[in-house]
Amino acid sequence: MDPDSGDARPRKLGYLEDAMHREHGCCVLMVAHLSGSRLLETSMQTCVRAAAQRHPNLRSVIDEQTLSLRELPGYSVQDCQVEFVQADNEEDAWKRVADKETNSRFEVYGSVPLWKVLVVQSAQRDVLMVKFHHCIGDAGSGFVLVNDLLTSYQQLTSSGALQVEPLPALPAADSLCYPAGRSEAHASEAELLLEELVRRRSSWTPVLKYDAVPPTAGHNTSLYRDGTEEFGRT
């Protein structure tokens, strides 16, 4: 599939994708702490463009009328950019950036893909952040994407060139759930289940106890797995 052709057919949001969309922009933020050589902006931009060329969902937005993922018409991987944040001697600047990004929403019906890449550079280290809308991937997808970016960067800096193998777009959600076809009864049942899921969202029991991670109404909660106080409380 040509990433610049814009001829990919829209794919209706699946059950979980639809639920995440109705939650008004739930996002995933992956964070990787890097040691050794500093990331170069021009090289990282090349790797981000390669990732968009490889993964179809990274070129997608949500169609407001059909609630489908569709590829941006005329979108070019050359438009991909990565944001570098210079933090100088502020060692914990990445936490400030992470908190801001986890609590800012994507413009899902806009003209910009539902993901972004940031690099926070302090005197101590580089921190790579990959943020994406939950409609186009989950945390497992995030690990794959971070690995792709870093593998591409290593390949680019060692050989001076990248080999990109584009992945096929996912098939329609209905064909995954109902190989023999989706009936009207199936459609009605799924819609009722989804409405009930959204209705009961406020009563869900959190995985982490509130005394371990204080809740913030209307906000995502950042968890840090680097031994800091935020993660260490019990």
Automatic annotation (TrEMBL):
**Which InterPro entries does the entry mention?**
Alcohol_O-acetyltransferase, CAT-like_dom_sf, Condensation_dom
Pfam families the UniProt entry points to: Condensation
* Domain Condensation span(s) in chain numbering: 19-166
Which molecular-function annotation in GO is an example for this chain? catalytic activity
- Protein name per Swiss-Prot or TrEMBL: Condensation domain-containing protein
